[in-house]
Design a protein that fits this description.
Helices cover about 20% and strands about 25% of the residues. With about 250 residues, it is an alpha+beta fold. Strand 7 and strand 8 form a beta hairpin. Helix 1 packs across helix 2, helix 3 packs antiparallel against helix 4 and helix 3 runs parallel beside helix 5. It comes from Chitinophaga solisilvae. Homodimer.
């Protein structure tokens, strides 16, 4: 058996999330269907990072095993089968024990706000035309890196064993009419990024003090967080792996 990592990107609006779920339309189900159709055998993939309903990804990975050879036009064929809102960007040969989820060193997300009405941003950001204290917003983002326990920012009904996350980057950038939150960590909890964004926006609008933000984090109580920001503003941007793990396979034609 050979193990392969595949890199995908997708627009999440039409899906009930990334991971396969019973009686639900998911990105992973579409990928598995495309692989199974091309190989003419049942392929069950494993995903690196789960994204919620409506969340987008510029880069996500899955792995699968097969003893069959790759079609010489593998990328072309798979993308012809996949729906238009999912694209397979690359396939990589990896060691047979490599796991797309557990081998990942970090994940990076962006959440985009746009401050003036823009029909082209409707499905790629959150229209937020309110005045904000950017200095307070930036300070709140910096505070996040001081903590490791993010129980407050995990939605209920999760099956994780630990709420500890190592946040390496947390900051806001302003680009003309867009305000973007950038965050990188070794792992994320269910709803965590949207919870962080929603709660920080309360700080930016003066509805929550920086001290209150710290208290919310330290409370380990998800009712102290604000998850009420829409999914379309959230993008999984990058999944990082150890150098040398991914050996990309090239195809002619």
């Amino acid at each position: 058996m050979n193990r392969y990592f595949i890199e995908v990107a997708y627009k999440g609006a039409s899906y009930s999330g990334f991971q396969v779920q019973e009686n639900a339309h998911t990105v992973q189900a579409e990928v598995d269907n495309a692989l199974s159709t091309l190989f003419r055998e049942t392929i069950v993939s494993t995903g690196s990072s789960r994204t919620d309903a409506g969340v987008n990804a510029r880069q996500n990975f899955l792995h699968f095993d097969t003893a069959l050879p790759l079609h010489p036009q593998f990328l072309y064929k798979i993308n012809a089968i996949l729906p238009e809102d999912v694209v397979l960007r690359g396939i990589y040969r990896v060691p047979e024990d490599a796991n797309s989820r557990f081998a990942a060193l970090s994940r990076s997300y962006e959440y985009t706000l746009y401050t003036h009405k823009d029909p082209f941003m409707k499905d790629r950001g959150y229209f937020f035309p309110y005045k904000m204290d950017m200095a307070a917003l930036q300070e709140a983002a910096g505070i996040i890196k001081e903590y490791a326990d993010f129980t407050t920012f995990s939605k209920r009904n999760t099956q994780v064993k630990t709420f500890i996350c190592a946040v390496a980057e947390s900051y806001w950038t302003v680009e003309e009419e867009r305000i973007v939150y950038n965050v990188t960590a070794n792992r994320f909890l269910r709803g965590m990024v949207r919870g962080l964004v929603g709660t920080m926006l309360r700080v930016g609008r003066g509805k929550l003090s920086l001290a209150g933000f710290r208290e919310a984090i330290e409370s380990r109580d998800c009712t102290k967080a604000d998850f009420a920001v829409p999914p379309q503003g959230l993008f999984l941007i990058k999944v990082a792996y150890p150098e040398g793990l991914l050996q990309q396979i090239s195809f002619s034609g």
